[in-house]
């Protein structure tokens, strides 16, 4: 069966001096691009070195296996769609997306990222990575800005199919892992870990599940993950839950001495008693822990435990603004401020621990504001 040659409609320049071919072995097709050696060489030192090599003469006068329509033919062992994406960005036929959390950003840049990594096209790779990092940031403050946008969109588009608006993390994890773009992985894995899948019972007699939908308007294609990344997801998700629960139990055991001196309700009659202790302990147990472990009546699952960053933010606001029914049990503003600071400190600790929890070695090693130096061991 002869090969079918398909010329690119957009990447076929009349003054081009090189034809690049990407082959589809199964369909026996060659996708052809007529481009310029100088353009390719200016982008990639690998291609520049190839073009600087002396060209071998044809083995015989009639040998045209290395030419196409009289021009040198260069065969790429890459997917035609990836080659087309790369050349489209290089020739600025297409532009790298810049909208925040654009739903198809990964699809648009994956091919170009894959080949710019392979062929050492540093400037293009840096621009693409910058776009991905803006969606999946390294700093907690940037994550919070992102979440405000997401929550606003959730309210604005209530009732619509949110797949049309939200970036999906599993595809990002696949291409970032392949191209060693580690910095985006902790945030992506965290987002993936908070997707709780509500199982839908079958309408058939067997009662076997027919599928699953997101219980909190989050979407993910978990099925495309490789086994190693699924393991990271499971281990990291359990580590997150354990850390939150440990914090809520640990903070109740705070020593009294440190608070007696600052508590506004401390009396001279009982200088060794922390007056706000009981009120705070009641709040940690009856409000904070109950909120985190509260189960939706339809799911019987503690959904708030899936998103500890959001849950801790709410708890910090609650303790600051909390109005007790009984003024006798109401902690003073100083003690409530201490509790809020403890919650926010725990929130930052969780964020900085994401690389360790999800086993992503060196993901944020060079980020002074985002990662601790000792939390980069890969547990794979």
UniProtKB/TrEMBL annotation:
It comes from Rickenella mellea. Residues 14-91 form the BTB domain. This is BTB domain-containing protein. Pfam families: BTB. The lineage of its organism: Eukaryota, Fungi, Dikarya, Basidiomycota, Agaricomycotina. InterPro entries: BTB/POZ_dom (IPR000210), SKP1/BTB/POZ_sf (IPR011333).
């Amino acid at each position: 069966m002869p090969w079918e040659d398909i010329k690119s409609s957009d990447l076929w320049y009349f003054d081009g001096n090189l034809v690049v071919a990407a082959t589809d072995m199964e369909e026996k097709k060659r996708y052809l691009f007529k481009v310029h050696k100088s353009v390719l060489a200016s982008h990639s030192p690998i291609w520049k070195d190839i073009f600087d090599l002396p060209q071998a003469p044809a083995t015989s006068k009639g040998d045209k296996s290395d030419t196409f329509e009289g021009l040198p033919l260069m065969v790429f062992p890459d997917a035609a769609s990836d080659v087309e994406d790369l050349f489209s960005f290089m020739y600025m036929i297409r532009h790298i997306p810049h909208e925040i959390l654009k739903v198809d950003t990964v699809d648009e840049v994956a091919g170009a990222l894959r080949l710019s990594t392979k062929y050492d096209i540093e400037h293009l790779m840096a621009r693409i990575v910058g776009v991905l990092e803006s969606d999946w940031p390294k700093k907690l403050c940037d994550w919070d800005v992102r979440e405000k946008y997401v929550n606003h969109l959730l309210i604005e588009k209530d009732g619509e199919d949110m797949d049309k608006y939200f970036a999906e993390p599993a595809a990002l994890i696949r291409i970032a892992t392949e191209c060693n773009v580690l910095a985006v992985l902790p945030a992506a894995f965290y987002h993936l870990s908070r997707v709780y899948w509500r199982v839908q019972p079958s309408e058939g007699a067997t009662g076997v599940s027919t599928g699953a939908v997101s219980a909190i308007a989050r979407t993910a294609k978990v099925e495309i993950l490789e086994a190693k990344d699924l393991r990271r997801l499971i281990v990291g998700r359990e580590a997150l839950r354990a850390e939150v629960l440990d914090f809520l139990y640990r903070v109740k055991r705070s020593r009294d001495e440190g608070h007696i001196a600052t508590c506004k309700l401390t009396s001279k009659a009982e200088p060794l008693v922390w007056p706000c202790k009981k009120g705070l302990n009641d709040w940690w147990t009856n409000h904070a822990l109950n909120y985190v472990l509260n189960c939706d009546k339809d799911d019987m699952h503690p959904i708030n435990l899936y998103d500890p960053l959001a849950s801790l933010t709410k708890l910090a606001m609650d303790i600051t603004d909390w109005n007790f029914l009984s003024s006798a049990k109401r902690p003073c503003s100083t003690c409530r401020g201490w509790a809020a600071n403890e919650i926010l400190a725990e929130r930052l600790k969780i964020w900085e621990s994401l690389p360790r929890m999800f086993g992503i070695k060196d993901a944020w090693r060079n980020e002074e504001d985002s990662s601790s130096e000792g939390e980069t061991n890969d547990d794979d």
